[in-house]
Amino acid sequence: MPPQGEVRDERQAGLWAGILVLFILVAGVVSFVIARSQWWLQPLASVQGKVIDEYFDWILYATAIGFVAVHLFLAAALIRFAARGGERAAHWHEHLGAELTWTLVPGAAFVILGILGVFTWSGIYSAPPSNAEVVEVTGKQFFWYIRYPGQDGRFARTDPRLISQSNPLGMDPADPAARTNVVLVNELHMVTGRPVEIRVRSLDVIHSFFLPNFRVKQDAVPGRTVGIWFTPDQPGTYSIACAQLCGTGHYTMRGNVTVESQAAFDTWLQQQAAQ
Amino acid sequence: MDTAVAHETHAGDHPESFIRHYLFSLDHKTIGKQYYFVTLFMALVGGSLAMLMRAHLGWPDRGILDPSTYLAAATMHGTVMIFFFLTSILTGAFGNFLIPLMIGAPDMAFPFLNMLSFWTFVPSVLVLLASFFVPGGPAGNGWTSYAPLSAVPAASPGSGLGQTLWVVAIFILMTSSLFGSLNFLTTIINMRAPGLSLGRLPLAIWGIFITAILALLSFPVLMAALAMLFLDRVAGTSFFVPAGLLIGGKLTPHSGGEALLWQHLFWFFGHPEVYILILTPMGIVSEIISTFSRKPIFGYKAMVLSLASIGFLSFLVWGHHMFVSGMNPILGATFTISTMIIAIPSAIKTFNWLTTLWQGRIRFTTALLFAVGFVSLFVTGGLSGIFLAASPVDIYLHDTYFVVAHFHFVMASAALFSIFAGTYFWFPKMFGRMMNERLGKIHFVLTFLGIYGTFYPMHFLGTHGMSRRLYTPNFYPFLGSVQPLDVFVSISAFVLGAAQFIFIANFFWSMLRGPKAERNPWQSNTLEWTADSPPPHGNWPQTPVVYRWPYDYAVPGAPEDYIPQTVPTAPAYAGRHGGGDAGGAA
């Protein structure tokens, strides 16, 4: 540091610092624009997902404005207020009006975003409609077992002590529903436009049942069954992914989802039951 | 009490052996440096693990790591960086070194406890490092170590002896940390120099002070969880393991446990922990921005209130890590609201830093550059947090790389930048020499660009739906296009990693051969700059007396553009607040 009273000129340093910040700003925006077309949210295939995506977009607008505004301001401050000559800084260090404004305005924005979130969340976690197709999904290292009930809608009682190669969920043979339940590995079918209620469980450790296209995720926790529901509305094939580290095979826990017409679904289910 | 402490640590009275003087020193400055060197080493360990991860993830088909090694690297990277680098350097190195010097005390309230805290820290490091060499290797269940995966040894190769050692190492580390926090609180409350009211306390000390409170309240919760996990693993208890689990083809003998209990306990600690990792950095950055803007920090009262409210609120938001965990959905609503609210004081602080720079006369030292970099990184990370706070959006983003991007910005990078800023700033006081500014600036530019290049693209891996802790994305057809992103991230990471050698070289060369530092090379106001560089045992021949707050810069009418806290007030240049403080004596 040069001794006091000596002229210092930091304007060049300030310019470079400001340019660096502006570079980050530009790179951040440009990479976002590229990512929007290449690496964005998976194609949407559910009704509830629409509300989630809209909410996501509102947050995106707010945060984009924040990111740009802060970096512009920062760059401007660095360039404009580099030290030069013996001039002194301004001495002010409080301003009630400014402080109230930037407390209340972001505060209001955050609270509004929070309340929007609460409403959306309650919709997602509302009770499933009565016409929902009920399916059970059980995570296990490193597969997804999918179980459909029979016509009577009943799931057979299970007991882990009964688990075997041919009875991977340990269904109790004494339970008549065991004969009509259909158990599949890594394959989930749903009907376009029909709500589906999924009961998520685990046989061993915590997994997480993630359907990216439907904006659905629910941890599969041993010792409890958690019900979620949604309505798939785009026919097609999609993936199930595991979203909670569950051991060395975590990266292989992929499943397939098919959304199809009621007729195609019925045919498929009958074929599975026959096997 | 002053004299008694000074006597205990005054080396001139009785010549000490090398071992007592350096190894088991009671001097807070030596202890601070000891922490610095050990945590710097752990940063290199954690950073190397990251380089290993990125070498694999850029080109996963090459298979340079197998799945369990990859998971071990990821787990230990997080564990080392969070516990043994960031937490320990901020409190152990900066807290220890700065507190007595910035409050005008000759040393900590309990110098022996301070020494004990370091020498409890070292065994925790050794136990953790030992876990790399045991059969089965180190823990591989993430730094979050969710049960039952971590509670049942048969559940994964990464759940073996290494996981037990992980539990033990962190338990010991927590103990060492609690000793430190007790010391910090006592010292700050009881040993401030005459005239140093709480309203004149530097923000760096406020940050450390509130951090210590958070640590005392949250670390015991983790310790309880760790004890329970230890017992589940070795003593047949079932805190976290329900009945009827089929693991490794066998039914586990446990019953009655609750898997979610681990998460509640862990995150009740975990959320305050991440604020522990940001409050001290915020304080450090406030000192540095004010000093090098030659301008008082804007909104001192709001800054203190924000630190305190962030600290308080940090205990009310832990459930945002558990939105899809299976806990009661009502909590999904309450934790969204509390998490949105905690963003408000952070925003206030950001505006205050920006306003401090505005109409300042900025000196672009390396320390200032890193402090400004902190503001950018903290803002980027804080903004991504809003997506995650919104529980419906978190359904999609939870446990994806979006989360990884968020915490690497707001925790890892921001804290790291404050550590660099603080190092360049206080190096003259620690070692009596100056670091090389030219190398510092090169280090800054490469690190700033490298960090954005490494972590910004991870937001897009997350929006695209890529889960965390994946050995490879190639099993998922919907992730077929992510390779170019992963390669870009990996190359940026290598640049980032390589740039740190510039810092290491500068740091050690300067320590041994750097130009000698004067007492107050930065013309800063706080008390440490009135002590010698480096200060002797006891810091000052006589306890300093404080007449004003730390931010009397650019005071109209004053002979210089800064007025240290020890300069008595006079009518001609009494600063805006007459008595030279921000109001409020305590």
Topology:
The complex is a heterodimer of chains A (275) and B (586).
Chain A: E1 8-9, H1 11-38, H2 47-80, E2 84-85, H3 96-124, E3 133-140, E4 143-148, H4 177-180, E5 182-185, E6 187-191, E7 196-202, E8 207-211, E9 216-220, E10 226-230, E11 236-242, E12 255-260, H5 262-274
Parallel strand pairs in A: 3-7, 6-12
Antiparallel strand pairs in A: 1-2, 3-4, 4-5, 7-10, 8-9, 8-11, 11-12
Chain B: H1 2-9, H2 18-23, H3 28-58, H4 67-103, H5 111-130, H6 161-190, H7 203-234, E1 246-247, E2 250-251, H8 259-293, H9 300-313, H10 329-357, H11 366-389, H12 391-397, H13 401-431, H14 437-455, H15 458-463, H16 483-513
Antiparallel strand pairs in B: 1-2
Overall mean confidence score, pLDDT of chain A? 95
State the CATH class of chain B. Mainly Alpha
Task: Name the CATH class of the largest domain in chain A.
Answer: Mainly Beta
> What kind of sheet is the major sheet of chain A?
5 strands, mixed
Strand content of chain B: under 5%
Number of helices of chain B: 16
Enzyme class (chain A): translocase
Cofactor (chain A): Cu cation
EC number (chain A): 7.1.1.9
InterPro entries (chain A): CcO_II, CcO_II-like_C, Copper_CuA, Cupredoxin, Cyt_c_oxidase_su2_TM_dom, Cyt_c_oxidase_su2_TM_sf
Description of the molecule:
Chain A: It comes from Candidatus Segetimicrobium genomatis. Chain A: Its cofactor is Cu cation. Chain A: It is an enzyme of class 7 (translocase). Chain A: It is found in: Cell membrane; Membrane. The complex is a heterodimer of chains A (275) and B (586). With 275 residues, chain A is α+β, with helices and mostly antiparallel strands. Chain A has two domains: 8-84 and 97-124, no CATH class; 133-274, Cupredoxins -  blue copper proteins (Immunoglobulin-like), CATH 2.60.40.420. Chain A has helices at 11-38, 47-80, 96-124, 177-180, 262-274; strands at 8-9, 84-85, 133-140, 143-148, 182-185, 187-191, 196-202, 207-211, 216-220, 226-230, 236-242, 255-260. In chain A, helix 1 runs antiparallel to helix 2 (47-80) and helix 2 (47-80) runs antiparallel to helix 3. The N and C termini of chain A lie far apart (83 Å). Chain B has a two-stranded antiparallel ribbon with strand order 1-2. In chain B, a hairpin with a 2-residue loop joins strand 1 (246-247) and strand 2 (250-251). The longest helix of chain B is centred in the N-terminal third of the chain and has 37 residues, at 67-103. The relative contact order of chain B is 0.10. Mean pLDDT of chain B is 94; it is low at 1-13 and 577-586. At the A-B interface, helix 1, helix 2, helix 3, strand 9 and strand 11 of A face helix 4, strand 1, helix 8, helix 9 and helix 10 of B.
